[in-house]
Design brief:
Elements: H1 3-7, E1 14-20, H2 27-34, E2 40-45, H3 52-56, E3 63-65, H4 72-81, E4 87-90, E5 95-96, H5 99-111, E6 118-127, E7 133-144, E8 150-152, E9 158-160, E10 165-174, H6 183-193, H7 200-212, H8 216-229, H9 234-250, H10 254-263, H11 272-284, H12 288-300, E11 311-312, H13 313-316, H14 319-330, H15 334-345, H16 352-366
Parallel strand pairs: 1-2, 1-4, 2-3, 6-10
Antiparallel strand pairs: 4-7, 5-10, 6-7, 7-11, 8-9
Helix pairs in contact: 7-8, 7-9, 8-9, 9-10, 11-12, 11-14, 12-14, 14-15, 15-16
């Protein structure tokens, strides 16, 4: 046996690289959740004036300053350049790795084979009252340092990766305590004032910021500019259609709302959330057959764990069943209404709507 065969593949060691600024409320929680998983913690501070650095100092001595230039990618690339371990993991200060996912990450670390360039993980973005995940997105979280992958974009940056991928169900959980609502919009507006030409991705994320600030008409303008480029990622094209539908719904423009729901089908097979949007429209119009068709379609779609883009978990699980209960009840088909209420209950057993429907349908049966 040769020395090479005895040594085996190099161990999976991980540098955690983060950029922070005034994160004293969340940084300790984040770093504690990563302890024992990562072998190195690299923190790049972009101008904290609170106790962020003091708190970080309890976990690592590798704390560096970076002059803020309104460019998130530049700061993240600076942090990545300071890493020394085989893989790099990135987190934001308001994210945590929950215990179940910590265990999964430790298993990944001990089993990840050679030749993997990037590992994708889920990000849990929103939760319901029972703490169940309602919105997720998949992101490349762990990357091979020697590939020198770079971050792209001053705001809403992304890491450009290539090669061999490994997709997991490990989740990073986003638990913000506050949000700097105007920061990203300000960066985009400053870039516009400088006369910068926006990439398709810039157009899309600027539109998102406008929509989040309820500037619906301007958001519509930039979503439409984005789609007109025909250069966007498919998942962004689909999400732009969803957000255009939201904007027109807020403006009470029904025809345009429907237009962009249906336009999403040009970019891929119908997603469950779009089917539920159509079901909602037809249910409100008391067109029960159409509503039932679209809600049933939502229940029949394959919810792939490797899907990219925003994932609306309720639309892939309990919501269409709960709405089918309403549809069938209005149509006088109480047996089917009961069946779908119980299907919803399999996902949300303690939800008061499920319990109310159960009692209501039972009263009709007893009568």
């Amino acid at each position: 046996m040769t020395d090479h065969e005895q040594s085996g593949p190099p161990p999976v060691t991980i540098s955690l690289c983060m950029i922070v600024r005034n994160e004293e409320a969340t940084i300790g929680r984040c770093l504690r959740s990563a302890q024992g998983i990562v072998d190195e913690i690299v923190i790049v501070d972009t101008g904290s004036t609170d106790k962020t650095k003091e708190m970080v100092g309890r976990f690592t001595d590798a704390v560096y300053d970076f002059e803020w230039i309104n460019d998130f990618a530049a700061a993240r690339n600076f942090a990545f350049d300071l890493a020394t371990q085989r893989y790099i993991l990135w987190l934001d200060a308001d994210e945590v790795i929950l215990p179940a996912d910590r265990e999964k990450m430790l298993v990944l670390k001990s089993t990840l084979g050679p030749g993997v360039d990037a590992v994708s993980m889920l990000t849990n973005l929103a939760f319901d009252e029972q703490g169940q995940v309602t919105c997720q997105i998949r992101r490349n979280r762990l990357v091979l340092r020697e590939r020198n992958f770079r971050w792209i974009g001053p705001v809403h940056e992304y890491i450009e990766v290539a090669g061999t991928f490994h997709h997991t169900d490990i989740a990073v959980t986003h638990l913000p305590l506050s949000h700097d609502a105007g920061r990203n919009l300000y960066i985009y507006q400053q870039r516009l004032l400088k006369g910068e030409e926006f990439s398709p991705r810039d157009l899309y994320y600027f539109a998102n910021e406008l929509k989040d600030h309820k500037l619906y008409n301007r958001a519509i303008e930039y979503y439409q500019k984005f789609l007109a480029t025909n250069q966007g990622w498919v998942v962004d094209n689909i999400d732009a259609c969803a957000k255009l539908a939201d904007c027109f719904y807020e403006l009470h423009e029904v025809d345009n709302t429907l237009k962009y729901i249906y336009r999403s089908f040009e970019y891929g097979v119908p997603r469950a959330d779009f089917c539920c949007r159509l079901g909602f429209h037809y249910l409100n119009s008391n067109q029960l057959e159409q509503a039932i068709f679209w809600y049933k379609t939502a229940t029949q779609l394959d919810a792939s764990t490797q899907a990219w883009g925003l994932v609306n978990v309720p639309c892939q699980t309990w919501l269409p069943h709960l709405q089918l209960c309403v549809c069938y009840s209005r149509a006088g088909q109480y047996r089917l209404a009961h069946q779908h209420n119980e299907m919803a209950a399999a996902f949300i057993p303690n939800d008061p709507r499920v319990q109310h429907n159960r009692k209501y349908l039972q009263s009709l049966t007893d009568a």
